[in-house]
């Protein structure tokens, strides 16, 4: 099998050979001694990592759901403290089959090893969130992340909910990829169940009851993203993912146990979130920050890369239904004024895909954009 190390980027080093494939400029960028200038990040974003690991609680979500009482109360306390501080915690007892988690990570690894021509069959269309992409080079020309991604959607309320991911892989890549689609289908369905259980704890922690947040997202949209971070010759000059907050409501991340890379900014330091076997990393996104009326923080995070080690992760994003209006429940607006205007997930998704690069200021920029009207296009963030 040909290893898919050739990628499409806007610029190439002067000493590098490149050609054309499927009408796109092809560059073997991952195997260079120096990284292209377009991958170099400003020092302010690429600050050194702290040696101190992030103090994030590990919540037994299974015990909280089964036992209620003290177990639920403990989970509520842990989640509330983390979300008010930095917006990240980890969950165990989630019930996801370890064999399924391993098969999904392995399936993602197999995809990124495919020849470029095969991966380009599912190339991301500009303005959308699904498909294969390299370093966001289809959208940006600088501050490029050192990674490849594959993203696809899943919706429980869709008529083909039990096969939508399978159908995507089979129709886009061919029938030979149906088994891979089945693995991803099962994983997405498992992640949706876990995310709704977490929503029960979040709702209880906000004082709106266990069912409020679960019901809000039951028929929501989900996006799955497979991340591949190749070894990098100059890891101190680039990032796997730049500092940002996720536009989604909730992100569930499965890290490969062998390699760390996720970091969260706390007290001016980038603190690592090291993989814990069997645990899922959960972070709050901008949509849930708005739904909580700013009570819970959208997690500011980044991913670093390594000189000799490659890294993989699986990110599952939970979002509301496209047309659902995001506004905090009345209970959360009694003590303090509204922080953000009403919006739909479709509006925020369009904003981040077509008008603004997700960063540390996305939600505030989006609120201003809504006030100015959809015809206004603010400058892209870093």
From TrEMBL:
InterPro entries per UniProt: DIOX_N (IPR026992), IPNS-like_FE2OG_OXY (IPR044861), IPNS-like_sf (IPR027443), Iron_ascorbate_oxido_reductase (IPR050231), Oxoglu/Fe-dep_dioxygenase_dom (IPR005123)
MF annotations from Gene Ontology: metal ion binding; oxidoreductase activity
Reactions it catalyzes: gibberellin A53 + 2 2-oxoglutarate + 3 O2 + H(+) = gibberellin A20 + 2 succinate + 3 CO2 + 2 H2O; gibberellin A12 + 2 2-oxoglutarate + 3 O2 + H(+) = gibberellin A9 + 2 succinate + 3 CO2 + 2 H2O
SUPFAM superfamilies xrefs: Clavaminate synthase-like (SSF51197)
Keywords: Iron, Metal-binding, Oxidoreductase
Domain of life: Eukaryota
Cofactors (names): L-ascorbate
GO biological processes: gibberellin metabolic process
Residue ranges annotated for the Fe2OG dioxygenase domain, each copy included: 217-320
A UniProt-annotated Pfam family: 2OG-FeII_Oxy
PANTHER family: 2-OXOGLUTARATE (2OG) AND FE(II)-DEPENDENT OXYGENASE SUPERFAMILY PROTEIN-RELATED (PTHR47990)
Family: Belongs to the iron/ascorbate-dependent oxidoreductase family.
Protein name in UniProt: Fe2OG dioxygenase domain-containing protein
Protein species of origin: Eragrostis curvula (weeping love grass)
Lineage, top ranks: Eukaryota, Viridiplantae, Streptophyta, Embryophyta, Tracheophyta
